[in-house]
Amino acid sequence: MRVAIAGAGAVGRSIARELVENQHQVMLIERDLSHIDPAAVEEAEWVHADACELQTLEDAGIESCDVVIAATGDDKVNLVVSLLAKTEFAVRRVVARVNDPRNEWLFGENWGVDVSVSTPRLLAALVEEAVAVGDLVRLLTLRQGQANLVEVTLPTHTPLAGRPVRDLALPPDSALVTILRGGRVLVPQADDALEPGDELLFVATAAVEEEIRAAVVDA
Question: What's the predicted TM-score (pTM) here?
Fold first, then answer.
């Protein structure tokens, strides 16, 4: 894919390195000259400009990008970049970094954001995941579809042990997408047996999250 990243600070560079290693074409857009360091990610294209300016994005060829990532340390900038990418250039997928969790509510489809990533929120979720066996933990919000990625870890004495995936009485607007078991990533099949300690990852709307928890924990 061709990916544009607005913001070439520590976060933007780290993302760029990962994408380059996975054979994607990456363009870094940065307005702060002190952050321009082509040697840091040699395979990326570097653009010294303000990503909040329409002309800058047009000159950079944003319309040819499959993904735009707004990764600056300023939420206002990330929102403007997201909105321009989606509304002016019809970029298929826009990912935005949320620096202040209090601003999370803004990072939705009204501002052109398909997926928002809040580091504080994600870290808190991972802490909860480590200690909350049997509880439902929201890991990621997929704003465009108003859906979430949520996780439930089966407790040691789960009544679902040995029962097939098909026995999960899941509500509408939810899907079991992955089972994490002992370092393995399993694509769930109807006949697969569940085991204590399994981490079940679901994509679901917020409205049915409690029903998922009840189906898994109170089964």
Answer: 0.63
pLDDT over 70, % of the chain = 91
Kindly indicate the confidence band of residue 138, based on its pLDDT and cuts at 50, 70 and 90.
confident
With the C-alpha atoms ordered 193, 194, 197, 201, is the resulting torsion angle positive or negative? positive
Instruction: Please classify residue 141 by burial: count the beta carbons closer than 10 Å to its beta carbon, then call 0-12 exposed, 13-18 middle and 19+ buried.
Output: buried
Angle (nearest 5°) at CA 115 between 204 and 122 = 80
Task: Give one DSSP letter per residue of 135-178, joined into a string.
Answer: SEEEEEEETTTTEEEEEEEPPTT-TTTT-BGGG--PPSSEEEEE
Q: Exposed, middle or buried: residue 124 (CB in 10 Å: 0-12, 13-18, 19+)?
A: middle
Q: Are the beta carbons of 67 and 96 closer than 8 angstroms? A: no
